[in-house]
C-alpha cells in the first residue's frame, strides 16, 4: 500500500546502530512507513533498541498482506497487523500468535457530506470502495452498519452495495467519483487527508453501528518464535513503550525524528506532518487485549458468514510478553539474554 497522495513505493529498511552479538529482529510493517511507526523510529534514533540487545530492521512490504507470507518463509520475524486479519488467518488454519497492541485509532466508512449520504442506512445500493472488493469483508462491514441503523438485515444490506476496488486509495475513490463511500478508513489518516484536500468528509465509526472495533495495530509472530524469543520480544516491547512515552512527552522532537527517518517526498510532507499530529494520541503503552475482545470479533465474523468458526483465543493471543509496568522516559531497558 502506498500513500494516496503519490509517495514513492519502495522497500524501507531502517536499522539501529548496533554492536556485535545482538539479536536481530526483522519487523514487517503493515503499510508504508508512516506515523503509526513513530515510536519505533524514536527507539532507533535514541539507540534504545541497541541498548536492549536488539538489532531492529523495519521492512515495508511491497503489498499490504505480504508480511504474513514473509513470516512463514522466515524472511521476517514479527509483523504488524490488525486484529481482524489475525482472526481471519487463524480461522483458515494459519498458525500465528498475537502478543501486543500498541495503537488504537478510530475507523469506519468514509463519505463526503452533501452527496446524499447522512447515515449508514443511506448506504443501501451505493458504490462502496474497499480493498478486496467484491469479497465479503466490505459487504459485512457496511451490511452490519446499515442493519444497526435500522436498514435491512446485514446479509441483504451487504448484498445491496456495489463493490468498487480502488486498492487502498480511499480518498481518491471518492474524489474521482468512482465510489460513494469507502472502508476501512481511519480518522488519523483518511480524514486528515480529506481535510488537507478541503473535502467535507465524515466517518461512520465501526463501534457506533454494530461492528467490533478492530482499528488497532498488534504484533504477531509464529508460535515457535514467541516461545523461543520471549525475552527478546519483552525487551522489544519495553523499548516501544519507552518510545511511546517519549513521543507523548516530546511531540516536537518525535515528529522531527519521524520526518527525518521516514523521509516523505515534498508532495507528502504536509500530510505526513499532519498525520503524525493526529496519530500521537492513538498510541497505547497498555498493550494487553483480553479474550472477550477476540471472542466478540470472532462471533461477528461467524455471524456475517466470513468464517465458520475460530479456535480458542488462547491458541492465537497471549498477554504473557507484555511488560508488567510501563517504562518512563529515562529508564534503561535490560539487554536481552544471550
Rg (C-alpha, Å) = 20 Å
The low-confidence parts are 1-11, 327-338
Distance between the termini: 37 Å
Task: Please report the number of helical segments.
Answer: 13
Percent in helix: 25-40%
Short description:
Helices cover 37% and strands 17% of the residues. It is α/β, with parallel strands linked by helices and 338 residues long. The radius of gyration is 20 Å and the shape is globular.
Description:
- There is one protein chain.
- This protein is an alpha/beta fold and 338 residues long.
- Helix content is 37%, strand content 17%.
- It has helices spanning 38-46, 48-51, 66-73, 83-91, 136-148, 154-160, 170-175, 190-196, 223-228, 230-249, 251-262, 269-279, 291-303, and strands spanning 13-15, 23-28, 54-59, 78-81, 97-104, 107-112, 127-129, 162-164, 181-186, 201-205, 216-221.
- The strands form two sheets. It has a six-stranded mixed beta sheet with strand order 1-3-2-4-11-5, with helices on both faces. The chain has a five-stranded mixed beta sheet with strand order 8-7-9-6-10, sandwiched between helices.
- The longest helix is centred in the last third of the chain and has 20 residues, at 230-249.
- It is globular.
Amino acid at each position: 500500500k502506498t500513500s494516496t497522495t503519490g509517495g514513492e513505493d519502495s522497500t524501507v529498511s531502517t536499522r539501529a546502530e548496533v554492536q556485535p552479538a545482538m539479536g536481530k529482529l526483522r519487523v514487517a510493517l503493515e503499510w508504508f512507513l508512516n506515523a503509526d511507526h513513530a515510536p519505533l523510529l524514536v527507539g532507533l534514533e535514541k539507540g534504545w533498541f541497541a541498548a536492549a540487545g536488539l538489532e531492529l530492521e523495519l521492512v515495508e512490504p511491497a503489498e499490504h498482506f505480504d508480511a504474513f507470507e514473509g513470516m512463514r518463509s522466515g524472511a521476517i520475524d514479527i509483523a504488524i497487523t490488525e486484529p481482524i486479519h489475525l482472526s481471519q488467518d487463524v480461522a483458515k488454519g494459519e498458525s500465528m500468535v498475537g502478543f501486543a497492541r500498541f495503537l488504537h485509532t478510530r475507523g469506519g466508512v468514509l463519505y463526503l457530506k452533501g452527496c446524499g449520504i447522512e447515515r449508514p442506512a443511506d448506504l443501501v445500493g451505493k458504490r462502496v470502495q474497499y480493498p478486496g472488493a467484491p469479497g465479503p469483508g466490505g459487504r459485512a462491514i457496511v451490511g452490519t452498519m446499515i442493519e444497526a441503523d435500522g436498514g435491512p438485515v446485514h446479509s441483504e444490506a451487504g448484498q445491496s452495495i456495489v463493490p468498487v476496488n480502488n486498492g487502498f486509495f480511499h480518498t481518491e475513490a471518492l474524489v474521482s467519483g468512482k465510489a460513494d463511500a469507502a472502508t476501512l478508513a481511519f480518522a488519523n489518516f483518511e480524514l486528515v487527508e480529506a481535510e488537507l484536500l478541503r473535502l467535507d468528509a465524515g466517518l461512520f465509526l465501526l463501534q457506533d453501528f454494530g461492528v467490533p472495533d478492530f482499528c488497532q495495530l498488534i504484533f504477531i509472530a509464529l508460535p515457535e518464535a514467541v516461545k523461543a524469543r520471549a525475552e527478546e520480544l519483552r525487551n522489544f516491547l519495553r523499548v516501544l513503550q519507552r518510545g511511546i512515552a517519549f513521543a507523548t512527552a516530546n511531540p516536537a522532537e518525535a515528529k522531527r525524528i519521524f520526518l527525518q527517518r521516514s523521509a516523505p517526498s515534498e508532495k507528502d510532507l504536509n500530510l505526513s506532518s499532519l498525520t503524525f499530529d493526529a496519530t500521537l494520541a492513538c498510541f497505547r503503552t497498555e498493550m494487553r487485549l483480553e479474550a472477550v475482545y477476540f471472542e466478540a470479533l470472532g462471533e461477528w465474523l461467524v455471524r456475517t458468514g466470513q468464517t465458520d468458526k475460530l479456535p480458542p483465543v488462547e491458541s492465537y493471543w497471549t498477554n504473557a510478553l507484555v511488560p508488567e509496568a510501563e517504562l518512563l522516559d529515562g529508564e534503561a531497558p535490560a539487554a536481552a539474554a544471550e
